[in-house]
Write a structure and sequence with these properties.
six-stranded mixed beta sheet; 9 strands; globular; alpha/beta; 2-enoyl-CoA Hydratase, Chain A, domain 1; binds acetoacetyl-coenzyme A; Lyase 2-enoyl-coa Hydratase, Chain  A, domain 2; 2 domains; three-stranded mixed beta sheet; 262 residues
């Protein structure tokens, strides 16, 4: 297991913990370890949902500028694939994911948060894509996922200016889903866990299909998206959870089914 990216498990929820003080700058080691951690939790049947957490002070202040500063075009042409791979690996985890953002989520750090399904932030958190101030643009999915989440005009304004967004503004524009007011150091992490708790013991294959239908559907035209939905929907009739869920409804009414995740 990597020292800079750890996987912790507790009560059906896995936590991917970024741990490279002081700012969790995402160097090549962190990027590779994060991709490996995503593969690990993605195939772990005991992990129903996943939190990405950078600790009590910071989420991540971006790709490691000191590592990138002297890279040539030829070097970055090769490395830029890995930059997108680790956020893609996160986005493709086939279970609910949430970023627990206690402080800065900037550049590649914001892009890690964007690759999660949900974002929970402390009141003092600051998010942004400040790459323009370095003479570059976001390279770990930010131009695409930010625009899809908050709309193209807002995304362009944030990327063109590089300015930091407060938690309140992030909530108002849909960049985060919840702002945690408590000053308790672990309050954001606790809120992230509470958000994922309902999925523990849930119908894992239906949750996986729901995530895939929404995410794949956003990449294609409506008719193709509807076809993706139709196939995934029909496929769920091969699962035990569909049988258990419907049988339970017929016998006991709504919301009482016990699911096995198979
Ligand atoms: N890469 C490398 N080192 C970083 C870093 C980064 N992204 N962010 C912070 N650090 C380092 C600082 O250089 C400093 O190191 P030293 O103690 O050795 O000097 C240490 O972390 C603490 O930082 P500050 O002294 O600057 O702390 P601060 O509280 O005054 O400011 C900050 C914090 C606002 C996060 C500021 O450090 C900052 O603006 N960081 C850069 C943010 C940024 O531009 N991110 C985008 C990176 S490019 C990218 O991510 C490309 C992509 O899309 C993949």
């Amino acid at each position: 297991m990597s020292e800079v990216v750890r996987v912790e498990r507790d009560g059906g929820i896995a936590t991917i913990r970024l741990d490279r003080p002081p700012m969790n700058a995402l160097n090549a080691e962190v990027q590779g370890a994060l991709a490996a951690a995503c593969a690990e939790v993605g195939s772990d049947r005991d992990a129903a949902a996943v939190i990405v957490y950078g600790g009590e002070k910071v989420f991540a202040a971006g790709a490691d500028i000191k590592e990138m500063a002297t890279m040539s075009y030829a070097e970055m042409a090769e490395h830029s694939t890995l930059l997108q791979d680790f956020t893609r690996a996160l986005a493709r985890i086939p279970k609910p994911t949430v970023a627990a953002i206690t402080g800065y989520a900037l550049g590649g750090g914001c892009e890690v948060a964007l690759a999660c399904d949900f974002r929970v932030a402390a009141r003092k958190a600051r998010l942004g894509q400040p790459e323009i101030l370095l003479g570059i643009i976001p390279g770990a999915g930010g131009t695409q996922r930010l625009a899809r989440l908050v709309g193209p005009a807002r995304a362009k304004e944030l990327i063109f200016s590089g300015r930091f967004v407060s938690a309140d503004e992030a909530l108002a524009i849909g960049l985060v889903d919840e702002v945690v007011d408590s000053e308790e150091p672990d309050a954001v992490y606790a809120a992230a866990r509470a958000r994922l708790q309902p999925y523990v013991g849930g119908p894992a294959l239906a949750l996986r299909a729901a995530k895939e239908a929404v995410d794949r559907g956003l990449e294609v035209d409506l008719e193709s998206g509807l076809e993706i939905e139709r196939m995934l929907f029909a496929g769920l009739f091969a699962t035990d959870d569909q049988k258990a869920g419907m049988q339970s409804f017929v016998e006991n009414g709504p919301g009482k089914a016990t699911f096995s995740g198979s």
